């Protein structure tokens, strides 16, 4: 799963659920990313200030959509060049005006990884097609 | 509108006089009865708007008739129709639960009094219906709020499991050690889901019969549902359970009360703090069970403290309904419980303490469901010394604010 060809990608994951934070970290690390995590606003700000990231992943489902948006704004004001992805539960409506570079539905690990990889221009090395059983959104991807 | 009136009467001429007096102002169906058997039979057979009775009938005393009515038909208005002498005696009866006592010399005002009694009973019935509707609405709101919280609580571990299974399936690290670690983590998350669903199912499973409810278990089950919110807001939970606290009642209702108090405490601590849950029993001649829910949140103003439990009063703006505390008070009253509130908004020592108090039967050591109502005692700001005595564990935080 690791791409391993370049310097490791640095991803900041912000989530208030410890298990989800931990498993998402493991998942991204399995693709060779260097992951640092933050729970809550103050940790998120500290981590943003301390180290630059190639991507900031904010889970709005856990911190709340409004709060997630505020965090997006904070990250953008502290690190204007860093891409920010806002993770949203599918049952939530996507904010019409968001400061995030992309809103990703939390529909499963593969979908999230594929979207993150797209944002990182394929540097994470998530294979879109790994076999015929990889069916997630396969038809739309194949046709595009 | 035609009204139906039942008259327990001793003498036939009194019956005729009363009927005539009533018919001057209202359209009515008038049923005179003379014995206890006829009286009870009539009440079972028809739906009445008003009950009339003489103070003393040869076969069935008017006071006994009133007592029977209050027990079985508490909403039905009751008017005594007596001699002037009987009226004097009746007016001295302590706690006489009748709408009016009309003597034979005051028959002209009988129809007016009867009309007022029927009107008041109808209004009271409408109020009771509205109250019941509000209780149901609040229940729906609480369920809605809980459903949101539950969906969130379930989605998180499910997604963690999906991540772990994905790792197990796709990761280049296929060592037995890693696989075992991921599967153990997934199992732990599944247990988390199981716990949430178990508590959720129990939360609103209505029971037809009152049962022994262990207060500490009810409190803990509410904590499970708010676990993520507590963690998210960095709220430390301190459980000081010095008694199991057994109440006879309905688990769902008690959980609803605890959920209201705990949710309010969480809302009061957006920037973290401490939530203390305490259960203790006080022995003595009148044993009591005390349940304390205390937070170190923003506190309430004097006005908010004074208006706790007032219908539609909320401190949460548009996000509040003003029903939660009102419903909690209604349920507490049903259990013969009372509520005390202490609050401070002073910077550095702010917070709120809610203390629920129930009387316990000395024989069973349990609080009886539906015992006599003890009015709620709301004391917005107690003195320093009083607080110390009441809340030995939290005096340091709030005593300064007195």
Characterise the protein shown here.
The complex is a heterodimer of chains A (144) and B (402). Chain A is an alpha/beta fold and 144 residues long. Chain A has helices spanning 18-29, 40-50, 60-63, 65-78, 109-119, 138-143, and strands spanning 10-14, 34-38, 55-59, 84-88, 102-105. In chain A, strands 2-1-3-4-5 form a five-stranded parallel beta sheet, with helices on both faces. The longest helix of chain A has 14 residues, at 65-78. With 402 residues, chain B is of the alpha/beta class. In chain B, helix 6 (176-203) crosses helix 7 and helix 7 packs across helix 9 (251-267). Chain B starts with a strand and ends with a helix. Chain A binds chain B through residues 1-2, 16-20, 22-24, 26-27, 30, 40, 61-63, 89, 91, 106, 108-110, 130, and chain B through 151-152, 155-157, 159-160, 162-164, 166-167, 170-173, 182, 185, 188-189, 192, 228, 231-232, 234.
What is the average per-residue confidence, as pLDDT of chain B, rounded to a whole number?
78
Distance between the ends of chain B: 58 Å
Which shape of chain A, going by the Cα principal axes? globular
Q: Which secondary-structure class do the elements of chain A indicate?
A: alpha/beta
Largest interface: A-B, 24 and 25 residues
User: Helical amount among residues of chain A, as a percent range?
Assistant: 40-55%
The strands making up the biggest β-sheet of chain B line up spatially as 2-1-3-4-5
Main sheet strand line-up of chain A? 2-1-3-4-5
